[in-house]
Design goal:
mainly alpha; Serine Threonine Protein Phosphatase 5, Tetratricopeptide repeat
């Protein structure tokens, strides 16, 4: 008699939509959506991922900062530089606390934030559109 492992039933592996592994998979899906130009769907997906990560790992975890950066990049793709800047600001604050001000990740996020701020139209007649 050949022993065959039991195939799990769908209910056997229920971990739920708010599980960290599911959030990681959704983050990968968001990257695919963003790469295919489906930025709004990517942003919606990333917002869900962000909420799960914040609950599971805490609001000051590095993965929160990384997800904020991905969400900001997607916002930039749609031209929402003000939103992208806000997200990068939050990411930068987390990274400075965790990594210290001299870390390369902090410098990279600072540069992205500066790029976004340069694209945000000012109220002084500056009509930059990016």
């Amino acid at each position: 008699m050949v022993h065959r492992p039991r195939v799990p039933e769908p209910g056997d592996l229920h971990i739920g939509p708010d599980h960290l592994e599911v959030a990681a998979d959704r983050g990968a899906l968001a990257a695919i959506l963003d790469a295919r130009g489906r930025h709004r769907e990517a942003q919606q997906t990333l917002r869900h991922v962000l909420s799960v990560i914040e609950i599971v790992l805490g609001p000051d975890h590095y993965e929160v900062a990384a997800t904020l950066d991905r969400l900001a990049a997607s916002a930039q793709h749609t031209g929402d530089y003000a939103q992208a800047a806000s997200l990068h600001e939050r990411s930068l604050a987390i990274k400075r606390r965790i990594l210290g001000p001299g870390h390369a990740d902090v410098a990279e996020t600072s540069a992205r934030l500066a790029e976004c701020r340069a694209e945000v139209p000012r109220g002084d007649g500056d009509e930059r559109t990016g």
